[in-house]
Structures are given as structure tokens and as C-alpha cells.
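Supplementary material to the annual report.
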Amino acid sequence: MSAVEAPIEPHSTGLIEAAAVVIEARAAPRVAVDFPVEIYSTGFEGPLPGHARDLSVGGVCVATRSMFALRSVHRVALELPDRSLPFKAEGRWQADSSSEESFLSGIAFQAPEESNVSRLWDLVHAAGKTLGLFLYSTSELSELGADDATSIAQISRLRRVPSGRSIYPQDACRPGDDSIFVVRSGRVNLRYRFGPGDEVSLLELDPGSVFGGLPITAGTPNLESALAATDTTLVDISRSSFTYLRVAKPLLAQRLVQIVARTHVRRVRQLLAVAARRR
Amino acid sequence: MTATTQASPDRLISKRATARPGVRGPRIAAQYPVELYSEGFDGPLSARSRDLGLRGMCVESRSMFALRSLKQAVLQLPGGRMLVEAQGVWQRFAKQEGAFLTGVSFGAERQRDTARLWDLVVDHGSKLARFLYGRGDCKGFGIEELLGICHASRLRHVAPGEWIYHQSSLEAGATSIFVVWKGSVALRVEAADGRPAAFDRLEPGRLFGGMPLVADVPPPESAVAKDAVALLEITPAVFETLSMTKPWLAQCLSEAVTRVYGGRASALLARTPYAGAHTTVTR
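Predicted assembly:
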């Protein structure tokens, strides 16, 4: 979900209307970013610190430790390395991000000045370029090619998960647990539970590895659980991002499905080998 | 991309971009007696249709014939015979079925024949879709999607005890997506130690196969006919065409194939003996 979009329900209206809603909601590319943000609200005196998780020309998604009243937000400042970039702002949506132990809020910029729009444009461009290069050159999505890696970068969000924290549990399908993930930094441990307390550690994933995503690509729960083996940063391709791809870039969506399904087959093969040793 | 895969995504796209025009347009998995008339032989050659569309059909025959010599075909359709001008387009030997498959294109359309074929394709597709609606693994599909699947499939008969495909083998005919129409199919998976495990037994309406198309991996299990089986088959060529012309349907199929496989894998793993509370690390 970008900062300025409402949750997408592709089946709630006719197919064409739903497609139009999905495409309109993604009119501007939004890219996974990670820098400090200060939120100013009428509800509290000083600024509330947060971290940007994705950024577009129209708004920003911010992770904060606590919830706040969306309606009271009136200003946001992006704390960039070289300067602070303030905007009039409006809160749009809020969601719990359990794996991050934080709340995510979508904040839309209100009538930004032309010079700030240019600055945002450059920021989004630079972040998309950097992430696109990572996905293209070092990740399991590299087979998609440069154009598609860039497209993925432009619908992504960053997620920080502290060491030892669950990313999703086994058999998970819940919103937030259902994304396709790419390890950006750190390590992720995949595990499978045969019964209460009877758990095997399947694999440790390095940066560039793809995991999860079965709920949104196949409508079925993830087979295994995932937890952060170290402090980890993930590129998160959410259900709404994938819905956008299905409508706007169906071939890319299908290739993403192919990668997720292939990864899944590999995991099943590993698990069957473990299971065979128990018979 | 693993070394065992059949096509890189780039090749897949280029293959998609040049998908055969012959597989476009609705067709139905239908078996009708066909007589083929050719310059090469005096009497008609007996065959039967495997799929039938407005502009052509796929026929199965016991022997080969020269594609160029084909002139006419007579279809024994419900309601009577239909004579069409015919041209051979492609031919291949279906090893598992011990038969030759030939793609036949119909010549200049006659309006009366077109109307008759139209009714046949639309009505038969609807009947087949109705049969699948709400049944087995087709429960998740809407009516439009089921009609799309029925209009993209070909009939395949498999004798009792014959293999439909083998695990890890990318032989011809092993990569399609299948829906059981009649009979039953057993799926078996062989673990790393070579020991087989029953994966599932499938009755009409159940979906299987297709992981080579969807995930670009060799079949993760083997499939064998338990009795005389009729299958609706979506071939790689048709799937590639769907990906371009009806991407939504191709995605629905991809989703279903992965979901069904995941469900079977989960069920098999759930039958694994519980080893008590402990954690092991595998590499």
C-alpha cells in the first residue's frame, strides 16, 4: 500500500473498474527507502520520530513505535543525510506491522512546492536505481532482467526485522505475512514444524534470496515459518503491489509467480527428504 | 534458474511472442470420428479428433501420412457428417499414446459450417465447464475461467497402468496441465532416498501436473492412470498463448497449479511421523 492509496479490493467491483482503481492507486512509483522521519501532529508537542519505509512523489509510508491519530497529522519532515525536507501532510491509513514491532502509517504530502517535488523525484529515482541494481545484480530476481527488476523496485517497501523476530509463522496467510520477500541485508532462517516442539531448521537465507509469497501468488499458506536470524532488512512485495502487477504488468506477475513456485518446489523437496528419513 | 529446467524466461517470452496462431481461438476437447482424404491413398484414413475449433482440429491416427497430400476431412459430428477442405499443419508422434497427432487447418469457411462448428464449440465448452463447475480442484474457478480452460484444452486418453509423466523427466507430453475428466489417476512422489510415497489419488475434476510450465522445474511427482482415463490437457503451446492473449486466465491456472501442489505437499508432510519435541538443523 502506498502512502496515498486505499486498500485494494480487486473483486469488489467490475473487473475493469477494479483494474482502473488498482492502476490509479499506483499512478506514481513508490520505492523502498530507509531514513528518519519526523511527524508533527496537533496531538503531541514535539515531533514523533519514525522511519520511512517507502517513498513516492505523493507521500511516504512511515514506521513508528506507537500509534497516533491520523487526523491530527499536519506536517512531516524527511530527515535526509544532507538536509531536512518538510511537507504539509495528511494521515491516510495505519496498520500494525507485527514483525517490525511497529505501526505503519501512510502520509500524503499536501501541495508540495515545485522545488520539493523535484527533490522527491530525485530521491525516488535514486532509491529505485539502487534497489533495482541490487535486485538485478545480486538477487534471485535477477533473471527478470533490468527493466523488470526496476519495476519491482518501484512497488516495494522496506521492512526491518530485529534478530530472533518472526517474519511469518508456518501456515500463515494473514495480511503482512503473505508478501513476497527478498533479503536485502542480514540472514533469515526458514523452519518447519512437524508437531508441537518438533521443528527442523531448513535453511538460512543470505541477501538476495527470495522467500514467502505463496499466499498471494497461489492462495495457499506458506509451508514453513521464517524468522530473522540476525537484524534483517527485507524488500517487501505486498499483496496490493502484486495485485497491481497482475493488472498492469501481467507477464512480470507471471514470472514472479514462476520464481515463487520454483522456490516452493525446492523447499518441498528438502522437506520430503527430511520426512523420508523419519519413515 | 536450475540446470534441469527447460526454458529460460527470456526464451519463454520469445516463444510466447511467436506462439502458433493455430492455438488461438476457442476449441474444445472432443472426440469425434474423422475420415481423412489424401492424394496419397485411395480410401479414407480413419482418425478421431482430439480437439476441435472453428478453424481446425487436432486428430489422432494410428499411422503417419504426408501432410501436404491431405485434401479433405469428414467429421462425424452429432447431427450428421460435415465435409471440410483440409490442410495438414503439423504432425508429431505421441509416444505414450502410440499414436500420431496431426494439426489440421480447415480451408475456406462456409458460413453454414462455421455456424455449425460455432454451436458445437460453444455448447460443448459450456457442457464441459458445467461438469467442472464446483467440482474437485475447479471449485476456485469462476464460470468465465472454466469456459476459458475448456476452450483451451485437448483430450488425452490414457490406458490403465500407463504413465502420464515421470518425476524429474521433461519428456514430451510431461509438462502439460491436466484435469481429470474420466477415470482416476495416482500421483506418487519419490523421496531423496528413492522410496516412493503415495501423493494423492485423483478423481474427475482434480487438477495435476503443470509445475514445469508454472515453476519452470521438472515434474515434482509421477502420475499413472489407475483405470481408463480421459484428461483435459492444456499443452505448453496453449499455456504460452494464454499468457499473452488471456494473461488473467494464465495467472489463475498458475495459481491453481501451485495451490494444488502445495496442498498435496502439506498433506503428505502432515502424515510424517512426529519425532517428539526437538529441533534439528539440516543443510
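Residues 1-13 of chain A have pLDDT under 50 and may be disordered.
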